[in-house]
Amino acid sequence: MELAQRVQALTPSSTLAITAKAKELKQEGHDVIGLGAGEPDFNTPQYILEAAKKAMDEGMTKYTPSGGIPELRKAIVDKLKRDQDLTYEEDQVIVTTGAKHALFTLFQVLLNPGDEVVIPAPYWVSYPEQVKLAGGKPVFVSAEENNDFKLTKDQLKSAISPKTKAVIINSPSNPTGMMYSREELEALGEVAKEEDLLVVSDEIYEKLIYTEDPHVSMAQLSEDLYNRTIIINGVSKSHSMTGWRIGYAVGDKAIIKAMTSMASHSTSNPTSIAQYGALAAYTNSEEEVERMRDAFSERLDAFYEKLTRLPGVSCVKPKGAFYLFPNVKEAAVNCGFRDVDDFVKTLLEEEKVALVPGSGFGAEENVRLSYATSMDNLDEAAERIKTFIENHQ
Ligand code: PLP
């Protein structure tokens, strides 16, 4: 049976090959250090587990409204007011099956065939595929490493065509960890206004910031930008709840209504029990969130220091998320490898350290390392990479 064209156009996940290889080596009994993870390594906080158990015991195990239980939508409205001084009504919120499905549904309701979405590279792997699945066309713009991987106003302008409908802003970013300042967002926001673009603001790493710089959302900058921004967020990264699959989108009422209608025919609703867990996440103290953030911050400092001492490796210091995205081109070339993909593959084979090549994120000279793992693992990984480079020079 021939598969639909939309599936044939999908790019297989670049992380898959390396993950499969790492798994194979582990099964053979090798001591593999995996730095590919896109999820916090902490348990979900206890008070969230308790809330979900209570929900189950009390029979909250049935369908819910497609857009999410009203209590959770209200808690999200309160969170946005508390954290970002943003005012939304509950019908501007949809709770989704993870932030990923919020994005997926948004592109489905937004794009007609051929509509373009500007995606700054390096980008999170799912953006281009989701745009393509909705019939749209991803338009990539390379944000320069010497500009900390940030898109500039001129770059955004040059990517615009009459078909451009939206731009994706992911701050802090996966995979680079960079974060836009208010001024930088204001400059990009001017283009969004001039060109009448929707801004898709993926803020999933909002709570994982390791500098004094405040997190700023495009929606906070002006009434115009508030109206043209859809914020995407969720509990996966902030509360270590990746498996619960709870995210949300907020913004323009008509868009949220269309998304809710779409969700009613696809997921029906996000898992009821998980919604009660997320409700506890948003209505309790953030002590646990801060504890996890502090642990990430410590690991970042230690690992960054070790990594940047390696010959041929340079790295923009991330401000948020839990990834490092060093440029290893020089190290790869000096070691005689064809390219960075080859460097990554051989590193796994010889030293049993699994990284993700940057090619899948639109940056061929870089690799992504996640520090969502123990300090011991990070120390050991840095030693092994050092040995690997030394052995090949
Ligand atoms: N956006 C970015 C930038 C991410 O890195 C991820 C997860 O890796 C998501 C969205 C999706 O998160 P969720 O687990 O809520 O679907």
From TrEMBL:
Pfam families reported in the protein's UniProt record: Aminotran_1_2
GO molecular function ontology, one term from the record: pyridoxal phosphate binding
Keywords on record: Aminotransferase, Pyridoxal phosphate, Transferase
CDD domains named in the record: AAT_like (cd00609)
Entry cofactors: pyridoxal 5'-phosphate
UniProt domain Aminotransferase class I/classII large: residue ranges: 31-385
Keyword hit for Nucleotide-binding: no
Catalytic activity, EC: 2.6.1.-
Listed GO biological process terms: amino acid metabolic process
Family the entry assigns: Belongs to the class-I pyridoxal-phosphate-dependent aminotransferase family.
Protein name per its UniProtKB record: Aminotransferase
